[in-house]
Amino acid sequence: MNKKLSVKRKMNLNPDIVRDWFDTVFNPLLDKLKDECDLINIGNFTWRSRPRGFEFLREIDVYLDKDGKTNLPQIIAIYPAMKKKIQDHDVKLKLLEERCSLLHQALTKQSQDLHKIYQSITSDESLKELGIYKMFGSSNQEDQIDLIAEYMVNQKGELPYYHSVSPLWNKYKKEFLDILEKELLLSKKKELIETSKELLFKTQELIRFLDDRRMDLSFQYGLALAKPANNSVN
Asked: What does the DSSP assignment read for 49-111?
């Protein structure tokens, strides 16, 4: 009965409905998920310690605006397999967030290596060698160590000049990241990397699913994948 209902709903589709689906669900999700893959591939999870969570990685529902959230259940009714793929993505994303938090906590609360390096490189003499006299604005030592640990969790590369901490991070980045190879932290780093790979796989799987369904619908209803721009001709 459910199969018959699904077929009936599919037969009742029309180009206007499918166009709305493209514009509010398929296209926004594909754009966001491809950005997500790019970030995961370079190891920048955009995880933040305050407030704890990702800056750019999101659960699927959060990627959508109000219209997208409204239309999503309709699409899932036609393509029930999509619901499980979304759940798989969101579960792995939540696990990655936990892994990031655990590694950050280990760096700031359990390991002494980060604190030792911090004390050494933020001495007046060390900062003078870098040609700077004040770092991190007015934040206290705990906040400063939190920020460095956050960069380590996200495997940050070179920071642009406009970051106040960039001279320090860019010079001592290797020393910071080498801490992650210590016995206390290595297992947590490996768990984080493994979880990021699992999330990447689920994200790519969802992208393929959305791409295939969107292409099928575009041929079936004679629609462009992207909505044409409304260019007026004088």
From this structure: ETTEEESS---HHHHS-HHHHHHHHHHHHH-THHHHHHHHHHHHHHHHHHHHHHHHHIIIII-
Q: Which domain holds residue 40?
A: 2-107+183-221
Tokens coding 154: 């996200």
Kindly report whether the global pTM for this prediction surpasses the value 0.85. yes
Q: pLDDT per residue over 11-57, tens digit each?
A: 589 999 999 999 999 999 999 999 999 999 999 999 999 899 999 99
Alpha helices in the chain, H assignment, sequence order: 2-11, 15-21, 27-41, 60-63, 66-78, 81-105, 113-121, 124-129, 141-153, 166-178, 183-221
Of the chain, the end-to-end C-alpha distance in Å amounts to 54
Q: Are residues 168 and 204 in the same domain?
A: no
pLDDT at residue 161, rounded to an integer:
82
Question: What is the pLDDT confidence band of residue 137, given thresholds at 50, 70 and 90?
Answer: low
Euclidean distance between CA atoms 212 and 163, whole angstroms:
42
Count of structural domains, the chain: 2
Domain contains 230: no
Q: Is residue 232 part of a domain?
A: no
**Is 227 a member of any domain?**
no
**Which residues sit opposite 47 in a β-bridge?**
54
